Amino acid sequence: MRFELTEEQMDIKQAVREFCEKEFEPELARKLDREEEFPWELYRKACKLGFIGIHFPEEYGGGGYGVLENCLVVEEMCRADSTLGTAIILGDFASEIILRFGTEEQKERYLSKVASGEWISAGAFTEPAHGSDLAACLDTRAVKEGDEWVINGVKTLITNAPIAHFFITLCQTDMEVEPPYRGQTLFIVGRETPGLDVTKIGDKMGIRASPTGEVSYSDVRVPESAVVGQLNKGFYHSLTFFDESRIEIAAQAVGIAQGALDRALRYAKEREAFGKPLVRHQAIAHKLAEMATKVEAARLLTYKAAWLIDQGKLDPALSSMAKTLAGRVAVEVCDEAVQILGGYGYIGDYDVERFYRDAKITEIYEGTREIQLNTITRWMLKR
Ligand SMILES: Cc1cc2nc3c(=O)[nH]c(=O)nc-3n(C[C@H](O)[C@H](O)[C@H](O)COP(=O)(O)OP(=O)(O)OC[C@H]3O[C@@H](n4cnc5c(N)ncnc54)[C@H](O)[C@@H]3O)c2cc1C
């Protein structure tokens, strides 16, 4: 058993760290958080350096690396800044569905444009009446008319919706089949397709530089070539995608937690109370030690889950464990970081307040904490 990253993986981490040190300005992060704007300039620079789609094959503009290397990028970006990092790493969200299940033509058409930063992707699964319960009969329906599919419905809480160039959309295509999830199909729907409309959802608690929106489909017509993967297998394809994307969210959580810990440790060494630095007070030192222990445990589980996928041994229970643990750790560590900074932790200028708000989403999207626990239990009972 080896617990060391390879030299190449260390170089990737270092390259991302240097990029963030040079380009991420705390003032910019605070401004984009306030104004709920996407960091376009930084995003294009990150794409140019090959950080987005690093896990795509080289023939589609990627770096030819695996899920673990992608997680290293995600972790480092979110460690440097939870708001900027999260917005950037989600720019290619759900394009892995095309990578894993798309036709050669779809991969050529979409993946290089995503990796280069020309196009932003979105994955539209959640509906107003179906969030966790995607296995139900979906209200977004696609009906075949001649050689086209006609889509009607609404998807909500969709990351990147206000800026995305295309939406990978999960639709009900067989309304009769039982159970209903055996009748769902994924479609790529271009932003300019007539009948597609997007409304921005603002005023989020955190990750405010990552835009979110509602997407409505009103007699949206797409050709047969818009189907991703197999007809009526969309639910299964989505689950496989979530098994991978959950690890990416776990890496986001590890990065946010580490970033909050870095800031708390720095502050505890500088700030004095009762004649000595905070870190010399055992109550604070123990907090820091517990935070570091939790972050390390979450990191190990996340790396293992990512590594397993790269070995072709995807373990859905482990993906869920990584996301559950890392999400909880992110929230708890950010909470303690705010506590260590005292009154200043509560003020925006010190950033841990923003990390705290940004951390919470990792326990909600890509399957809530409760849904992950359901998955883990299901696999335990199966084994
Ligand atoms: C900022 C943001 C970005 C998002 N981005 C995307 C995106 O890009 N694409 C997309 O499709 N969706 C996205 N989502 C939606 C997100 O995935 C859903 O909000 C999430 O899956 C939960 O669904 P819900 O909100 O409908 O909650 P519900 O499913 O209504 O759940 C409410 C509560 O009940 C619990 N619960 C539900 N069922 C069970 C059960 N069986 N057992 C135990 N507890 C249960 C849940 O854990 C939760 O605590 C995003 C959400 C947010 C906030």
Write a structural description.
- With 383 residues, this protein is of the alpha+beta class.
- The chain folds into 3 domains: 7-116, Orthogonal Bundle (Butyryl-Coa Dehydrogenase, subunit A, domain 1), CATH 1.10.540; 121-232, Butyryl-CoA Dehydrogenase, subunit A, domain 2; 236-382, Butyryl-CoA Dehydrogenase, subunit A, domain 3 (Up-down Bundle), CATH 1.20.140.
- 51% of the residues lie in helices and 15% in strands.
- It has 13 helices and 10 strands.
- The strands form 3 sheets. Strands 1-4-5-8 form a 4-stranded mixed beta sheet. A 4-stranded antiparallel beta sheet has the order 2-3-7-6, with no helix packed on it. The chain has a two-stranded antiparallel sheet with strand order 9-10.
- Helix 10 (316-340) packs antiparallel against helix 13 (369-382).
- The longest helix has 37 residues, at 234-270.
- It is globular and about 80 Å long.
- Bound molecules: flavin-adenine dinucleotide (FAD).
Q: How many β strands by DSSP?
A: 10
Work out the strand percent.
Answer: 15-25%
- What strand line-up does the widest sheet have? 1-4-5-8
Q: Please indicate the count of domains.
A: 3
SSE string: HHHHHHHEEEEEEEEHEEHHHHH
The CATH superfamily of the largest domain turns out to be Butyryl-CoA Dehydrogenase, subunit A, domain 3
Residue windows where pLDDT falls under 50 for at least 5 positions: none
Between the first and last Cα atoms, what is the distance in angstroms? 23 Å
